[in-house]
């Protein structure tokens, strides 16, 4: 290689199937906020996957993924943070160079008795919960920590992702993140050697890969910016801009369903870009501890 030339990113892995999940960290037995869509390799339109009885719980989704990923590898995107900012999270592991896997173990240990993979008890734990803002005006001690990938979202013009440590307001994402960590940990245990969670683990032939997604990234690419899609005609236009055939529905569609459908097509489009798997900001902290949102920061801006 000539001096001064950058190495090309590794080739993108290939997948026969793409699954996108619009996530929820709410308490309860089933949730309107969880939506699942999938598509095959090629350009066929994504389809919605209904949960048992028409509703998904996190446990039902775990059971479905465990069965489906044992049958056939897939690229699976979930709209939740896979980790916490380690500037704060590391304080829960004094004297230990903790990785994301130690964090997941701690979340599971603290939350083991919480039904349906709930993560709430971790946020009020005397040690691990010390950095979470739960109620009232912003406390003087609150640091509003963010992961590097969340700063990269801002640089990419994708808005201002909330810190997972801020558990205030309708936009809070922390409880969903903690619930997601429990599900990821359980899936790795249920599918040993058959599942990689990126970027903590590298993709390999024949393995499913889980990635963190941000539906706003796909909406921006399709020209919808910060606006949610709730109309079937707009949905087909977004799918077209992601290289997908139309779904050809009519009428109103929920933003949870449209996020999942657009994200499934977006995953298929994004997975073929080598730079999505090797963004410039993906350093050792991201690889070992904090993770990265798939498709963010590809230009290093």
Mean residue pLDDT: 92
> What would you call the structural class?
alpha/beta
- Quote the beta fraction: 5-15%
CA gyration radius, whole angstroms: 19 Å
Number of domains: 1
- Helix content range of the residues, please? 25-40%
Main beta-sheet annotation: 6 strands, mixed
Element string (H = helix, E = strand)? EEEHEHHHHEEHHHHH
Spatial arrangement of strands, main beta sheet:
3-2-1-4-6-5
Please tell me about this protein's structure:
This protein is of the alpha/beta class and 301 residues long. It is 33% helix and 9% strand. It has helices at residues 58-71, 86-89, 100-111, 148-155, 174-190, 215-221, 232-241, 255-271, 274-277, 284-290; strands at residues 17-22, 35-40, 47-49, 75-78, 195-197, 208-212. A hairpin with a 6-residue loop joins strand 2 (35-40) and strand 3 (47-49). The longest helix is centred in the middle third of the chain and has 17 residues, at 174-190. Residues 1-6 have low confidence and may be disordered. It comes from Azospirillum lipoferum (strain 4B). Keywords: Plasmid. This is DUF429 domain-containing protein.
């Amino acid at each position: 290689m000539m001096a001064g030339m950058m190495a090309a990113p590794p080739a993108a892995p290939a997948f026969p199937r793409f699954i996108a999940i619009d996530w929820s960290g709410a308490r309860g037995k089933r949730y309107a906020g969880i939506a699942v869509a999938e598509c095959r390799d090629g350009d066929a339109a994504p389809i919605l996957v209904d949960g048992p009885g028409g509703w998904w719980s996190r446990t039902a989704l775990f059971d479905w993924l465990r069965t489906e990923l044992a049958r056939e590898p897939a690229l699976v995107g979930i709209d939740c943070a896979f980790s916490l900012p380690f500037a704060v999270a590391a304080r829960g592991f004094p004297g230990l160079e903790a990785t994301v896997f130690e964090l997941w173990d701690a979340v599971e240990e603290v939350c083991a008795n919480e039904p349906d993979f709930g993560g709430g008890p971790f946020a009020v734990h005397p040690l691990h919960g010390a950095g979470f803002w739960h109620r009232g005006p912003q406390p003087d001690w609150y640091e509003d920590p963010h992961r590097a990938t969340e700063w990269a979202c801002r640089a990419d013009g994708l808005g201002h992702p909330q810190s997972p440590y801020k558990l205030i307001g309708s936009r809070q994402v922390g409880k969903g993140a903690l619930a997601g960590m429990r599900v990821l940990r359980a899936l790795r245990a249920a599918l040993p050697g058959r599942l990689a969670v990126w970027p903590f683990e590298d993709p390999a032939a024949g393995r499913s890969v889980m990635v963190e997604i941000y539906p706003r990234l796909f909406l921006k690419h399709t020209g919808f910016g910060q606006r949610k899609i709730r109309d079937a005609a707009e949905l087909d236009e977004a799918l077209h801009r992601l290289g997908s055939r139309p779904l050809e529905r009519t009428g109103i569609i929920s933003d949870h369903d449209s996020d999942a459908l657009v994200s499934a097509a977006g995953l298929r489009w994004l997975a073929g870009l080598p730079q999505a798997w090797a963004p410039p900001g993906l350093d050792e902290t991201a690889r070992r501890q904090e993770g990265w949102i798939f498709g963010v920061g590809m230009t290093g801006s």
